[in-house]
């Protein structure tokens, strides 16, 4: 496969953009690759600057659940564009998007729109701290909640540790208010609450983890966290930036039957544009300014072009009800990969939920960060390179999820499995 143009574009980009990319994983450092530069995309396909075509399972890290350049979304955006692009003054469609989210998600009465998942988390955390008048946030090792300071914290050893910054530039003083727990370990959470319960403002969690690869919650884990939070008057925040509207026309909270106090959303609700959201009960959400005292704002929050893309996406998902099809496609692909790699005796585990899955190169069950970290990342790099060379774009890191869109058909899945069949790692 020729990547001549992408190579040239990357060299140029490196002169003017740190690392040549505007978000680090795009540099493909984890898989030793040469970034492809995209020219355009349609349905399940990416087309790069050299004219190569790829079946895309990264889908812009999750938003493009209806496939790329989905016509009703493009039409909605064009219609809005014709009226102007930003006013900094309310528009009716902001209420329509907020109402659509609030109606679909049982724990949400009101929604504040922002411009990214990171901002949604920032807002939820400030709202939880301001509402409870407590400082400590509990997060789970391996969950990612955006690049905001108090969430960029990694663990030391031990069950519950005080966090230490996982990036230079995050002050220790910030990190010390973030406590870490292992995912799926309810006993560790109970221990921590025994000691710190009355100081904990909120527990934040990806209800299905996606950022250490796909890891579903163990039975009773989220329910246990709900009980701990309720007993201690701490808030439970579900970060549904990945899971929101992915498995059902709601948050995954509806499927898992656990109600958080606050929910963060992003990705799908923006239909490929920068939109994030935080939602919850009216009594809590009204603590935000202007009615409340907890400050939050944004020049481009609720931007009409972005909101119209999100609204068109949610309207299509509501009308088309594609969730069974997405789950069926996910199962066919994941089962197919599993069968091929088993026949080749390549150690692996696949965790899947609907149209989202991760192929871990580790034959033990992967239920937390330690399990994910034990994977053979060199094998994953070989897999990524083999798949890319065969026109299949999978996530460029072992610790990410594959996503299916409504435009991935049996034909695309068969083409993908064909590429997996010829994978012969040395
Ligand atoms: N939370 C989760 C669960 C995410 O997956 C992400 C992004 N991958 C974020 C928050 C941050 O969102 P954004 O990149 O839009 O700031």
TrEMBL record:
<comment type="subunit">
    <text>Homodimer.</text>
</comment>
<dbReference type="GO" id="GO:0006782">
    <property type="term" value="P:protoporphyrinogen IX biosynthetic process"/>
</dbReference>
<dbReference type="InterPro" id="IPR005814">
    <property type="entry name" value="Aminotrans_3"/>
</dbReference>
<keyword id="KW-0663">Pyridoxal phosphate</keyword>
<keyword id="KW-0627">Porphyrin biosynthesis</keyword>
<dbReference type="GO" id="GO:0008483">
    <property type="term" value="F:transaminase activity"/>
</dbReference>
<feature type="modified residue" description="N6-(pyridoxal phosphate)lysine">
    <location>
        <position position="267"/>
    </location>
</feature>
<dbReference type="InterPro" id="IPR015424">
    <property type="entry name" value="PyrdxlP-dep_Trfase"/>
</dbReference>
<comment type="similarity">
    <text>Belongs to the class-III pyridoxal-phosphate-dependent aminotransferase family. HemL subfamily.</text>
</comment>
<dbReference type="InterPro" id="IPR004639">
    <property type="entry name" value="4pyrrol_synth_GluAld_NH2Trfase"/>
</dbReference>
<keyword id="KW-0413">Isomerase</keyword>
<keyword id="KW-0963">Cytoplasm</keyword>
<dbReference type="GO" id="GO:0042286">
    <property type="term" value="F:glutamate-1-semialdehyde 2,1-aminomutase activity"/>
</dbReference>
<dbReference type="InterPro" id="IPR015422">
    <property type="entry name" value="PyrdxlP-dep_Trfase_small"/>
</dbReference>
<dbReference type="Pfam" id="PF00202">
    <property type="entry name" value="Aminotran_3"/>
</dbReference>
<comment type="pathway">
    <text>Porphyrin-containing compound metabolism; protoporphyrin-IX biosynthesis; 5-aminolevulinate from L-glutamyl-tRNA(Glu): step 2/2.</text>
</comment>
<protein>
    <recommendedName>
        <fullName>Glutamate-1-semialdehyde 2,1-aminomutase</fullName>
        <ecNumber>5.4.3.8</ecNumber>
    </recommendedName>
</protein>
<dbReference type="GO" id="GO:0030170">
    <property type="term" value="F:pyridoxal phosphate binding"/>
</dbReference>
<dbReference type="InterPro" id="IPR015421">
    <property type="entry name" value="PyrdxlP-dep_Trfase_major"/>
</dbReference>
<dbReference type="GO" id="GO:0005737">
    <property type="term" value="C:cytoplasm"/>
</dbReference>
């Amino acid at each position: 496969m020729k990547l001549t143009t992408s190579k040239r574009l990357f060299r140029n980009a490196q002169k003017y953009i740190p690392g040549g990319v505007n978000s680090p994983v795009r540099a493909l450092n984890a898989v030793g690759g040469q970034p492809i530069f995209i020219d355009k995309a349609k349905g399940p396909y990416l087309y790069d600057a050299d004219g190569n075509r790829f079946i895309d399972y990264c889908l812009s890290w999750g938003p493009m659940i209806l496939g790329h350049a989905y016509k009703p979304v493009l039409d909605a955006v064009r219609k809005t564009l014709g009226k102007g692009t930003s006013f900094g003054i309310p528009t009716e469609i902001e209420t329509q998007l907020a109402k659509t989210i609030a109606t679909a998600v049982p724990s949400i009465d009101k929604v504040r729109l922002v411009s990214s998942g990171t901002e949604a988390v920032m807002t939820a955390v400030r709202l939880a701290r301001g509402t409870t008048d407590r400082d400590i946030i509990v997060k789970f090792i391996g969950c990612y909640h955006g690049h905001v300071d108090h969430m960029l914290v990694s663990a030391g050893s031990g069950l519950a540790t005080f966090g230490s910054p996982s990036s230079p530039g995050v002050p220790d003083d910030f990190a010390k208010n973030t406590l870490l727990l292992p995912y799926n370990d309810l006993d560790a959470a109970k221990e921590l609450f025994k000691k710190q319960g009355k100081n904990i403002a909120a527990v934040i969690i990806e209800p299905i983890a996606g950022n250490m690869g796909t890891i579903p919650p163990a039975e009773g884990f989220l329910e246990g966290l709900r009980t701990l939070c309720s007993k201690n008057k701490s808030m439970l925040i579900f970060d549904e930036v990945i899971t929101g509207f992915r498995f059902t026309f709601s948050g995954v909270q509806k499927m898992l039957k656990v109600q958080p106090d606050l929910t963060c959303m992003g990705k799908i609700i923006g239909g490929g544009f920068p939109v994030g959201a935080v939602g919850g009960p009216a009594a809590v959400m009204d603590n935000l300014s202007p009615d409340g005292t907890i400050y939050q704002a944004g020049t481009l929050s609720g931007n009409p072009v972005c909101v119209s893309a999100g609204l068109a996406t949610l309207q299509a998902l509501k009308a088309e009800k594609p969730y069974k099809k997405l789950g069926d496609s996910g199962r066919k692909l994941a089962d197919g990969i599993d069968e091929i790699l088993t026949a080749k005796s390549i150690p692996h585990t696949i965790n899947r939920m609907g149209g989202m899955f991760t192929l871990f190169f580790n034959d033990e069950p992967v239920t937390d960060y330690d399990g994910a970290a034990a994977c053979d990342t060199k094998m994953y790099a070989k897999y990524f390179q083999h798949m890319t060379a065969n026109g299949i774009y999978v996530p460029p890191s072992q610790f990410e999820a594959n996503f299916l869109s409504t435009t991935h058909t049996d034909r695309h899945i068969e083409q993908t499995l064909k590429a997996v069949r010829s994978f012969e790692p040395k």
